[in-house]
Description:
This is 16959_t:CDS:1. This protein is an alpha/beta fold. Helices cover 21% and strands 30% of the residues. The chain has eight helices and 33 strands. The N and C termini lie far apart (64 Å).
Amino acid sequence: xxxxxxxxxxxxxxxxxxxxxxxxxxxxxxxxxxxxxxxxxxxxxxxxxxxxxxxxxxxxxxxxxxxxxxxxxxxxxxxxxxxxxxxxxxxxxxxxxxxxxxxxxxxxxxxxxxxxxxxxxxxxxxxxxxxxxxxxxxxxxxxxxxxxxxxxxxxxxxxxxxxxxxxxxxxxxxxxxxxxxxxxxxxxxxxxxxxxxxxxxxxxxxxxxxxxxxxxxxxxxxxxxxxxxxxxxxxxxxxxxxxxxxxxxxxxxxxxxxxxxxxxxxxxxxxxxxxxxxxxxxxxxxxxxxxxxxxxxxxxxxxxxxxxxxxxxxxxxxxxxxxxxxxxxxxxxxxxxxxxxxxxxxxxxxxxxxxxxxxxxxxxxxxxxxxxxxxxxxxxxxxxxxxxxxxxxxxxxxxxx
Length: 401
């Protein structure tokens, strides 16, 4: 059986909530647990027998993903990865419909569609098995969240006996359900017929109403999924594993922890271990082979240390991501933070944030920054004996007394 997969990567006009990190790298390519966000999507897809081609659809420049595609060819030689560029932002379903001929080339039976900005265990094989038990056109991956945050997502009301989705509302104003969409779908190819109907319906509404604005975007959530519920063609497969939406830099830290936990289950050799002549490792830690850590340092839990990072004597790092070429000097402390590319934390300095656990994507409230992780963007220097708490620091800054 042949499957195709599509990763929706968006474009440069989005991702503003991921600043200042997205000033240097597009959010889909930001490294989490040692690899770009969408590398984890490819790893999951590589475990589905029959997936031979993955199409990335968005409206970034073609060159943005070329290096990633070259690396993917090496890491996943059984999968052909291509990037298809939209001529403008077409909406979450518009790109799928625009490139429908490419997606349907070689006559795949079913199509995975994954949003780039999610992190989870990707139970794709389980979705396939479930999808083949019903007669719907789409299986959507769902998970349950706390009631008070459910309205930040697409909410699903299901029929318990067969998991048919009876009602779908994108970011409802009032509470509908705490079962939400994870942004991962499995479609039959007949979905393109439904997309064609949706495009015709949008055109007809404009023709009927002279005051109706022309809208070229086709939205998966509102224009496709909601009509599928009316025709009993949408079903939900619920996962109880952790799921994180990667919207802001703060969300990268729990996503990092999630993937490190996945490594422990599936690839424990990727994680750093305690050695007699090495640093003290607490919990789950990933270190790039080119990074160096002084044996007197204490690292973890939930830490990723990137290429060519230097960690000095007596350093403490916890729940953080340290990016390429950064340096944490002697007796520095980094907690709940992201240290950007080529940044330096001085001797006896401390960079500390506050953990976020409620799927919050809000950075400010009433003009004031909400306490969350601390972020040092590219080439930020923190001089010796400085304390940074709950701050976002823009690139090329020097912090001193």
